[in-house]
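README, section 4: Worked example with a bound small molecule

Sections 1 through 3 covered apo chains. Here we extend the same pipeline to holo records, where the ligand is supplied as SMILES alongside the sequence. The molecule in this example is NAP. Nothing else about the input changes; the structure line simply encodes the ligand pose together with the chain.
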Amino acid sequence: MKLLLTGGNGQLGTELYATATAAGHEVRATDRTDCDITDPARVRQVLAETAPDALVNCAAWTRVDAAEADADDAFRINALGARVLASACAARSVLIVHMSTDYVFGGDAATPIDEWQPAHPRSVYGASKLAGEVEVRNVAPRHKIVRTSWLYGRDGPNFVLAMLRARHQGRALRVVSDQVGGPTWTGHLAPALLRLISRDLPGTYHLSNSGAVSWHGFAEAIFAAAGGSPGVTAIPTSEYPAAALRPAYSVLDNRVWRLLGEAPLPHWRDALHEYLHRLRAQGMLGA
Ligand SMILES: NC(=O)c1ccc[n+]([C@@H]2O[C@H](COP(=O)([O-])OP(=O)(O)OC[C@H]3O[C@@H](n4cnc5c(N)ncnc54)[C@H](OP(=O)(O)O)[C@@H]3O)[C@@H](O)[C@H]2O)c1
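The generated complex, written as structure tokens:
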């Protein structure tokens, strides 16, 4: 299979490139300088040059809080960029796999949220990502929209690396305990995406590691697995002011994946252990 990646130097793009090339696929990974997804002419040119079987859009504005003050930039990349890619893919009948987020949901749910639940974003970032989904659905008949959650990969920035940095600096931490989600490691998401691409069924998919945890619970698990903790105090969201509202509960039920008979992604705890093991093996984590 020949794949074209946009946002190829981000957390997911880097992992997907490594996983897909290791699996024997031909992959062209582009970054913003090579292929700005908001530039229609450049996107059409790259697509024509590459003639891929599928384009995977890993490019996004991912700075959740900054989007509140910079809505136009977030929408330019997450919504307009999605339209540009979807339109170019539709013109050539290329499958577009478009990444989205649990932050399209409002956080009112109390049980895992499946693909058929209505979205209701509470932040500019979530709204811009939902707008991108709508663009891809409306413009590209051959599409797969994949929502994932609380993503972390090798280079970050992400929550796990931030916690490890705090641990290294011996800083005591206060972490919110009333936001619950599904941490997802790119190392498990990337192979699932390749599997998904090989299945001939368009539409919206949830793909996240199994299980659920609060940010506080996740922080404690990170410190326990890394071998020691500077202390993590649980606090409510009201004591951690941030520009963007986050959903209180955004655990994704990977229902479509399950109904198709696919194996669930591993539990987030196992994912965390594998991730830390990999960082250690790469010399990126002390013993
Ligand atoms: N991170 C999470 O916790 C999380 C959770 C759920 C869903 N997601 C979704 O998963 C996907 C991948 O996230 P990620 O964590 O891998 O993101 P990331 O590490 O922030 O990578 C995003 C990449 O997009 C690139 N980019 C930004 N604007 C671009 C443009 N106009 N043209 C081309 N490239 C552009 C960035 O390049 P520059 O470095 O040059 O800006 C960056 O390399 C995104 O759709 C995100 O919304 C992420």
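What to look for in the output: The CA atoms of residues 116 and 192 lie 20 Å apart. The mean pLDDT is 96.

Section 5 describes how to batch many such records.
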